[in-house]
Amino acid sequence: MTSSGAPSYALPLERRARVLDAIGPGVVVLPAAPVHHRNGDVEHPYRQDSDFFYLTGFDEPESVLVLTNQHPEHRTVLFLRRRDPEREIWDGPRVGVEGAVSELGVDAAFDIEELDERLPDYLGDVDRVHARVGRGHPFEARLFRALEVVRGRARKKVRAPSELVDPGKTLHEMRLRKGAYELEVMRRAAVITRDAHLAAMRAARPGRAEYEVEAELLSVFRRGGAERPAYESIVGSGPNATILHYRAGRRRIEEGELVLIDAGCELDYYASDVTRTFPASGRFSPEQRALYDVVLAAQRACIEATRPGATVDGIHEVAVEVTTRGLLELGLLTGSLEENLAEHHYRKFFMHRTSHWLGMDVHDVGAYYVGGEARPLEPGFVLTIEPGIYVGVREDVDAKWRGIGIRIEDDIVVTADGPMNLTHDIPTDADEIERVLAER
Predict the structure, then answer these.
(1) Per-block average pLDDT, block size 10, for the chain (440 residues)?
(2) Which long-range contacts (CB under 8 A, 24 or more apart) does 219-227 make?
(3) Which of 216, 262, 361, 410 is catalytic?
(4) Is 172 an active-site residue?
(5) Known catalytic residue: 262?
(6) What domains are defined for the chain?
(7) Is 140 noted as a catalytic residue in this protein?
(8) Catalytic: which of 37, 245, 344, 435?
(9) Which one is catalytic: 128, 352, 375, 394?
(10) What is the pTM assigned to this prediction?
């Protein structure tokens, strides 16, 4: 039971009902994420498929969920592994067929070994099957075999499905709009991520290796109750901060350098995604501070623009204009503002987009365009705001700017009253960052 007294499966149950209402006549078939082997007999840490978990709250592999409006009693069916005392000694307890109905709130449950036999029964006399294909999931072959079995029943007056539809059209629209429970989990994830970034700032002194700073992040994530990082942490010092997807390496932080940390935890299957950039020695140099203030101005303008009716494209245009104007004032770009915007000269230093959806996936699901037009933001959408400036070791810029990489990223909830910054209490103001570092 939850703290409210509702069964723990109440939220997935409500979500499944919404999916069934949305699809009308038809069947949804979703497999669990497969297990991936790392090497030999070692497996990668298991993480359930987000869509599957969203509708089940169930994190075991070798499972398939069937949702149908066509069966009089079995609207929700789960195929899963049976109890196996010998395997459970090695891998831990399983829910099993016996516990699926009471613990997960499904209508019926069967051994996954019965899938090939039983799945065709749920696909007969159905016009539309909602299932994702083309991703190389091993379940696809079993689904296609089941469809062939149904086609073979034509002489028994069984109608085979004629349409195969991506369930994301319905399901991902639901996931894009975050409810109160989801926002609360994301707020808690943001608190853990805040503590991790502050610990990393204290640890990132000259002489420390990038991987040592990453270790601080991972330690705080786990001690805070997060299951895992939401993505592989980026800890880049000096010139490594100009590499957008740099992974924490063995380089040692040097005096006078900036450290860029892009890291967030995953809590109860919801992600946090935060970037901070700060001076390892405790104070920004004049050039670092000048570029930092441009990025911060762009980010603040974008956050202010994150309101219902705005678009991700429009927010990016705000970031581009503020950043371009700042680069012109500092002499890193020349010419008019209009020319630089029209010819995209800013892309030499700001080459990525400003935002992406955030939720169960760090780059979460949901269409950015609807009917060929940029989608207006709505209350309940969550997105990142993350402008940056990256001056690599370039010959066409003054040496004083070279090797400076800066990104500032926060997690923003769209509300009817304006933007709500889930990660606001991780310092971004340059003076405040220097005060935090002075307390190390």
Answers:
(1) 56 96 95 95 95 98 96 94 96 95 96 98 96 94 96 92 94 97 98 98 97 98 98 97 91 97 98 98 98 98 98 98 98 98 98 98 98 97 98 89 97 98 98 96
(2) 220/192, 220/195, 220/196, 221/192, 221/193, 221/196, 221/265, 224/191, 224/192, 224/195, 224/196, 224/265, 225/192, 225/267, 226/189, 226/192, 226/265, 226/266, 226/267, 227/266, 227/267, 227/268, 227/269
(3) 262
(4) no
(5) yes
(6) 10-174 (3.40.350.10), 177-438 (3.90.230.10)
(7) no
(8) 245
(9) 352
(10) 0.95
